[in-house]
Design brief:
The protein contains 18 helices and 12 strands. The protein has 406 residues and is an alpha+beta fold. It starts with 9 loop residues before the first helix and ends with a strand.
C-alpha cells in the first residue's frame, strides 16, 4: 500500500511522526514521482544503505535542499566547481577521497584529543549556568548550549574563539527559510555570504600563520590528500561544513534533553543524584529527538529494497528520525528512558559517513547536562514561550526558556 507523503507538506513539517509510522508500516521503500526519489523509513534499511558504498553516492549532495529542490540553493553558496572534486566539502566526497580526508581530520575529533578540551569546555558551561542562575533563567539554547558548541567548534577547527558569537549568528541565520519552507530567504542568503566571506578571509590569513588545528589540513596540508593546494574559496567550503556541523545540531539535542528530563522529573532526579546516568539521558534524547530528519544520496547502481528497484540516477532519502523510532528496533520507541542504552541508533549516521563530531557532541552534551543538573536540578521549562524549527530537514528548539530554582 502506498502512503501519501511529501516532506515539504505543511502538516508533515509540523508533525512528521504519523507519516513516518505509516511509511514504516505500509510503504517502507516509498517512491515519490514528484521528486523521483525514494524514502527509506525503517531502521535496518537505513543501516544497510549507509553501509552500501557501491550503490549510493554523495557527489550530488546529501541534504533535502540539494536533492529535492536544487534551485532553492543560491549559486553564491554552492561549493566552487573543480574537475578533481576536492573543493567540495567532506559531506559530498565518496570513498576513496572521503577516506583520505577523514583519516587526516579524525585525530582532532577523537577522545584522546578531547580529554584536554574537557576542562575548558566545562569552565564555559559552568560560567553559562552561573550566569543563568544569577539572572534566574534564560534561554537553554542561546545562553547555554549554543555558547558551548560554537566555542568548541572554533577551538577544534582553529577559528578565533573571540569570534564565536559572530559565527553563531551567521550559522543561525543561514537556516532562515522563506514562506513555504523550500527557499532560502534574503536573511539566509546574507548570513551565508557573510559566513563564506569570513572563512575566505580566515583561510587567506591562516596561510601566513599556519597552526595545528583541523583548518590547517585544508589551508596548508591539502597537498597530502589532494595533490594540490586548495584555493581560499575551496577551503571556505570545507570549513563551513565543519563549523555548521559543529555548531548547529548540538544545541537542538541538548535542549531536547533538558526538555525531556523536565518532562520526566523522576528521571531528572535520578540523573541529578547520579551523574553517571547523564550520558544515557543525552543518548536517549539523541535517539528520540534527532534534529536532522533526513539525509540522502543518489543511486549509482540499481539496488532493491522490499521488492522495489531503486534505479541508477534516482535519489534516495534516509529518514533518520523515523528509523530512530522504529518499533522493529526499539521496544516502546516513543518512550523516553535514560536507562535504555540502545546499542544502535542513527543519530550520527553510520558507515563511512559516520558523523566526524560524534565524540565532540557526546562530550558537550554530557558536560552541559552535568553542570546544569549539578547546579540547578529543579529548573523549569517554559514551553509556552519556546520557539521551534519545523522544516522538512530540521526539527528542534530554536529557543527554550528555562527558569532556575537551584
Amino acid at each position: 500500500m502506498s502512503v501519501d507523503y511529501d516532506p515539504f507538506a505543511e502538516a508533515v513539517c509540523e508533525d512528521p511522526f504519523p507519516s513516518y509510522r505509516a511509511l514504516r508500516d505500509a510503504d517502507p521503500a516509498h517512491y515519490s514521482p514528484k521528486y523521483d526519489c525514494w524514502f527509506l523509513s525503517r531502521f535496518d534499511d537505513v543501516w544497510r544503505a549507509e553501509m552500501d558504498r557501491e550503490s549510493f553516492s554523495c557527489r550530488e549532495g546529501v541534504t533535502s535542499t540539494q536533492l529535492l529542490s536544487p534551485p532553492a540553493i543560491p549559486p553564491e553558496l554552492l561549493p566552487p566547481a573543480h574537475p578533481d572534486g576536492w573543493g567540495t566539502n567532506l559531506q559530498q566526497l565518496d570513498p576513496p577521497q572521503h577516506t583520505l580526508v577523514r583519516r587526516q581530520l579524525a585525530p582532532h575529533f577523537q577522545p584522546a584529543a578531547l580529554r584536554a578540551l574537557e576542562p575548558w569546555l566545562r569552565e564555559i558551561a559552568r560560567g553559562c549556568v552561573d550566569a543563568l542562575l544569577e539572572r534566574g533563567g534564560g534561554d537553554a539554547v542561546a545562553d547555554l548550549a549554543m555558547r558551548v558548541s560554537v566555542r568548541a567548534a572554533c577551538r577544534i577547527i582553529g577559528l578565533p574563539v573571540e569570534d564565536a558569537d559572530l559565527l553563531a549568528a551567521c550559522v543561525n541565520g543561514l537556516f532562515a527559510r522563506s514562506a513555504g519552507g523550500q527557499d532560502f530567504g534574503g536573511p539566509a542568503l546574507a548570513a551565508g555570504l557573510r559566513l563564506r566571506a569570513y572563512l575566505v578571509d580566515f583561510a587567506r590569513a591562516r596561510r601566513a600563520r599556519p597552526g595545528d588545528a583541523a583548518a590547517d589540513l585544508f589551508v596548508s596540508r591539502a597537498q597530502d590528500f589532494a595533490g594540490r593546494a586548495l584555493g581560499d574559496d575551496e577551503v571556505a567550503s570545507h570549513l563551513m561544513l565543519l563549523l555548521i556541523g559543529g555548531t548547529e545540531t548540538l544545541p537542538k539535542v541538548a535542549s531536547a534533553a533538558i526538555h525531556r528530563l523536565c518532562q520526566h522529573p523522576e528521571q531528572r532526579a535520578r540523573a541529578a543524584a547520579d551523574l553517571a546516568l547523564v550520558p544515557g539521558a543525552f543518548h536517549e534524547a539523541l535517539r528520540l529527538d534527532m534534529p536532522t530528519q533526513m539525509l540522502g544520496r543518489v543511486v549509482v547502481k540499481d539496488v532493491a529494497f522490499h521488492g522495489r528497484r531503486l534505479r541508477a540516477g534516482q535519489k534516495v532519502m534516509y529518514l533518520w528520525a523515523s528509523a530512530n523510532r522504529d518499533e522493529r528496533e526499539f521496544a516502546d520507541p516513543e518512550r523516553y528512558d535514560l536507562a535504555r542504552r540502545a546499542p544502535r541508533i542513527l543519530s550520527f549516521g553510520h558507515g563511512a559517513h559516520l558523523c566526524l563530531g560524534k565524540h565532540v557532541a557526546t562530550l558537550e552534551g554530557r558536560v552541559i547536562l552535568e553542570e546544569l543538573l549539578a547546579r540547578a536540578p529543579r529548573y523549569a521549562v517554559d514551553l509556552a514561550r519556546a520557539e521551534r524549527f519545523r522544516t522538512e530537514f530540521f526539527r528542534g528548539f530554536a529557543s527554550l526558556p528555562i527558569s532556575l530554582g537551584g
